[in-house]
Amino acid sequence: MLTLPTRRIIFWLKLAIIITCISFIFLFTHLAEITEKPHYRYPAQHIPPYHCPLSNKTGTTYKHHGFVRNKTNFLTDGKVLVFVETLYSKLGKQIINILDALKIPRKVETLTKNLPLLTTAKRGRFSIIIVENYYKYLNLLSWNRQLLDKYCREYNVGIISFIGNRPNSYINAKVKGSQLTIHTQQRAVNLRFNERSRVNFISKPGAVLQAPEPDKNDWILFDIISGYEGIVLADDIFGEERASVILDDGSEDGIEKILFGHNFTHWINKLAFLDSLRYMRESLMYDDLERFVQIDIDDIFVGTSGTRMTKVDADALLQSQFRLRRDITNFTYSLGFSGYYFRNGDSLEDKGDERLIGTILRLHL
């Protein structure tokens, strides 16, 4: 039989074990809250809607006379020949990526001693020729240059090319074999699409970009003279209007060309490039301006603690969808779900995850 002191010891041991178990349970369930580090969170922002500086009225259509390609007599296959400096050049890859995104068939070559086969027995193999470096085209071996130009004239094929700054180049210079004057090492301001250009389709002419201007003196600007039409206009530092993208209508050599004075680091050139492709061969591009918009928020639950969405953010996301639906019928965000990372943040972020799941039905209503 246990004595009184022994019973008391056992009682206190049991009590200690119970208290320890309760403490462990409490710590386990509240450990995340105790060890959480406070994070500074940026509040959800409501960005005011953008208003285009131009009305949606269709601009004036200008009739052009003189040399205009016959775009209904397709003597060539719907394929683009791309001459790149190297297979790894940055601009060359960007050109190829755009063509692939548009699902335009293409063949990529480098300008070497031998040109690829340009014709079959009855047809031309390429409907557009793109040259990454226009200087390489100008300095082709005479036989290759004659062969390429003859193909362009006989099959009514245009050339799209890019002119870049070269070390120790003249500030003002004539383009070899033409009357076109270029101005190198320029800073372009007030970029805009020419209202009178026949190339415009996607681009909306007339609006001067309300955005930061190019901040480097690495643009080439063209003088606009007879036989040449500015597609993208810009002002130099002296306020003189010039072109950063220009159309050679072929009046000098019978070959239409579109020349870019800068690469794709400025997005306006990408729009001009798309319009240039369509102008050179309409059948390669879409013929309407209807677009479908989808905003895909991929892996919504993936992210380190402190950067994930909270309940307030989830509510703001839902409200922004309702605002967008005022202008876009049935607009709905597309969310990517990752169950592995669900409720893997701090307490505020876990509530945000739960709120997102709770609003999924409303996001898709």
From TrEMBL:
<dbReference type="GO" id="GO:0005794">
    <property type="term" value="C:Golgi apparatus"/>
</dbReference>
<dbReference type="Pfam" id="PF25119">
    <property type="entry name" value="HSNSD_N"/>
</dbReference>
<dbReference type="GO" id="GO:0015016">
    <property type="term" value="F:heparan sulfate N-sulfotransferase activity"/>
</dbReference>
<dbReference type="InterPro" id="IPR056793">
    <property type="entry name" value="HSNSD_N"/>
</dbReference>
<feature type="domain" description="Heparan sulphate-N-deacetylase deacetylase">
    <location>
        <begin position="290"/>
        <end position="358"/>
    </location>
</feature>
<feature type="transmembrane region" description="Helical">
    <location>
        <begin position="12"/>
        <end position="32"/>
    </location>
</feature>
<keyword id="KW-1133">Transmembrane helix</keyword>
<dbReference type="InterPro" id="IPR021930">
    <property type="entry name" value="Heparan_SO4_deacetylase_dom"/>
</dbReference>
<dbReference type="GO" id="GO:0016787">
    <property type="term" value="F:hydrolase activity"/>
</dbReference>
<protein>
    <submittedName>
        <fullName>HSNSD domain-containing protein</fullName>
    </submittedName>
</protein>
<keyword id="KW-0333">Golgi apparatus</keyword>
<keyword id="KW-0472">Membrane</keyword>
<keyword id="KW-0812">Transmembrane</keyword>
<feature type="domain" description="Heparan sulfate-N-deacetylase N-terminal">
    <location>
        <begin position="76"/>
        <end position="280"/>
    </location>
</feature>
<dbReference type="Pfam" id="PF12062">
    <property type="entry name" value="HSNSD-CE"/>
</dbReference>
